[in-house]
Amino acid sequence: MKVIKLCRSVVLWAGILVVFAIGGYSQRPTPTPTPVEEEVIRVDTELIDVPISVADKTGKPILDLKLSNFRLREDGKPQEITDFS
Questions:
Q1: Which secondary-structure segment (H or E) carries 56?
Q2: Element (H or E) spanning 6, and its range?
Q3: Where are the beta strands (DSSP E) in the chain?
Q4: What is the mean predicted confidence (pLDDT) over 24-30?
Q5: What is the pTM of this model?
Q6: How far is it, in rounded angstroms, from Cα 10 to Cα 16?
Q7: Is the pLDDT of residue 3 over 50?
């Protein structure tokens, strides 16, 4: 009889410990994930393509233009044309 009471006490205390252990575990704050930094790629460039087409009044393309026929400005400031084709 004493053995049965002892077993019941052990089982009862073990159950209580399990309940407290589960309760304490579920109350732990979840860690906030660290924010992932996005990779930023910066490129400085001096060369920019500026595609153009020139046509006459009838819409026919003018094909015999030279570099000297063009001026390029950015924000009102003259820019150098380094390649013309």
A1: none
A2: helix 2-26
A3: 72-74, 77-79
A4: 61
A5: 0.41
A6: 10
A7: no
